Structure formats: C-alpha cells, structure tokens
Amino acid sequence: MRAIVFDPGAPRKFAFADAPDPVPSAPNELLIDVKAISLNFGEVYYGDNAEHPGDIPGWDSAGVVVAAAADGSGPPVGARVAGAAWSQGWAQRRVLASENVAVIPDSVDFETAAALPVAGVTAVQTIRRLGPVLGRRVLVTGASGGVGRLAVQLAARAGARVIAAVGSPERGAGLRDLGADEIVVGLDGVAPVHGVLEHVGGTMLADAYGLLEDGGTVISVGSASGQTTVIDFEAARMARKNNGIESFMASWPVGEELQYVLDLTGRGQLDAQVGYRDSWDNLDAAIDALLGRRVAGKAALTVS
Q: CB–CB of 177/199 below 8 Å?
C-alpha cells in the first residue's frame, strides 16, 4: 500500500513510500480502507511517534471498514468510520481498535470526519475537566486553531461565556459565529476567568494562569509557541488564590466521545472548521500552511 513515512532527508521530513498492508492482530481490531486524514500540529511540528525512517505517523483517519473485528465489537464491514491512534494513520489502510472508532453520519464527508478524532475528543475532555461551566467565563487561547475552534463551540454549548484569544484580528474571523462572546488579541485587559483551555504555552500560559479567579483551573493542552513557561506561583499564593494548573493528555479509549462530536456535526450543531482541503499528494504544502498559521481550523487531506 501507499503510505506517508518519516524520512529525515525529505524537505518536511515526510515522504511517500510503499509499505506492507496492516493486518489486525487482536480480536477487537478492524481494518479500514482510509479515504481521508487530517493533520495535527504536534504531528508535523514535533514528528510525534515517527522517530525511525520508514515509521508511519498519523493520528486521525476516516474511511470504510473492510474487515470487522473478530470479536464482533465495533462497526460491520462497509461502515463509514473515523478513528484515532497515536501512529499508522497516514496510509491507505489502517488497523484500529474498535473502541477508538465511531460511525460517520451520512451527512458528514470523510474529510470532515477525519478532522474530528483527536481535536474533537481533546476539546470534549478538556472542557469536562473544568467541571460545570454554565454561566462562567472560560478563556480559550489559540482559539483559531483546530482544537481551539472546536473548544469555543463546545464550551459555548455547555453554557460558558467564552473569551477567544487569537494571534491577530484576522485569526479571529468567524469565532463569534461559533459562540465566542469576546475575541481578544493577547490577554491585556482580560477580566478574571474561571477556567482556561490553553494551547499556546510559554508566556501565554503564564499570563493565563494569572487571570484565574479564586478556585479556577488552567488546562495546558499544547505548546504551539515552542516556548518554555515560567510561572511565579509565589505571586499566586500572595494573592490568596487557590488555583490549579493541569497538563492534558487524552484519555483512551475515545470512541464514545468521538461519536458524540460526529453526531453533533451530522445534526449541524458542531462545525468541524476544516479550513484547508487538498489531496495528500500535496502534503508538504499542507504542512507549510499549517505551520505558517495559514489554516483557520483543521487541515484535511483526501487519500488516493
């Protein structure tokens, strides 16, 4: 089969190659004929889980089941599904555990579905970790990115008053339509918040922590800035605040939460915000667009 593999000598460190067709090895695994993939910042910036030449990276895929799980779990042959794992997704065929896939509604295309596994599940899980947010102020940094745009929508759906922080006024386009009550560039002048979904890291993470009201929490989801974060916790103690900060890593399995966001999308109640679509043949251009902050939301590629 055709696959994208880690190639340290390639311009973007990824290249196409022939790879063996995967074969399910556990009773709960199914085989998918992949129709679309999406790109996540961590994959293309850090090269997550693609350390050796020839490794197949890729978290998110959508396609059609061609071999159902032997134990009867999961969707049957012919079902349209999306799913995730931490590698092996950027290929024409992929094996996934049945508990990490979900059925795509008829009204949702493969590219849209491929945009939702990691980003959608991350948004759901981080908002849940903030606890009840009805009527509370929630700050989403990096709100113009793939996870950020979903987090804005889901936090608003949960009843939060959402403040969306972006890098420029242009990056804030459309966020109010998604549910943001305020759109800010930087954090100067932002009033105290109950919770923060933080995707930028560095000074942004430190500044966001300083905005918490007593009892508030920051969920550190990512570090798109690549900067080290320094936080003065003594200043927080002197302010007599009992605040928390947590690093986030997705909890698995993800199938139920993925089904939730796919169903919302199928009913028109969630917009996956696919801001870039192309063939996976043009992978390097898609990577450049994503790393160059020229994608509003997610980048999804059609597999051929």
A: no
pLDDT at 47: 63
Task: Classify residue 269 by its DSSP letter.
Answer: S
Beta-carbon contacts of 239 under 8 Å, excluding residues fewer than 6 positions away, are none
- Distant-in-sequence, close-in-space partners of 234: CB < 8 Å, separation ≥ 6: none
Q: Which residue, among 298, 207, 217, has the nearest Cα to 261 in the 3D structure?
A: 298
**Which is higher by pLDDT, 49 or 3?**
3
- The DSSP H or E segment spanning 277 is strand 274-279
pTM for this entry? 0.95
Q: Strand, helix or coil at 16? A: strand
177-217 pLDDT per residue, tens: 999 999 999 999 999 999 999 999 999 999 999 999 999 99
Residue with tokens 């759906």: 157
199 HSE (CA, 13 A, CB side): 26
Gap between the Cα atoms of 104 and 255, Å rounded: 12
* C-alpha–C-alpha distance, residues 173 and 156, integer Å: 17
Assess whether the previous peptide bond of 11 is cis (omega < 30° from 0). no
271-302 confidence digits (pLDDT tens): 999 999 999 999 999 999 999 989 999 999 99
pLDDT in tens, 91-119: 999 999 999 999 999 999 999 999 999 99
Q: Which of 218, 219, 274, 280 is nearest to 243 (CA)?
A: 218
Q: Which amino acid appears at position 27 of this protein?
A: P
Strand partners, 295: none
Domains of the chain: 2-115+272-302 (3.90.180.10), 120-247 (3.40.50.720)
108's tokens: 């949702």
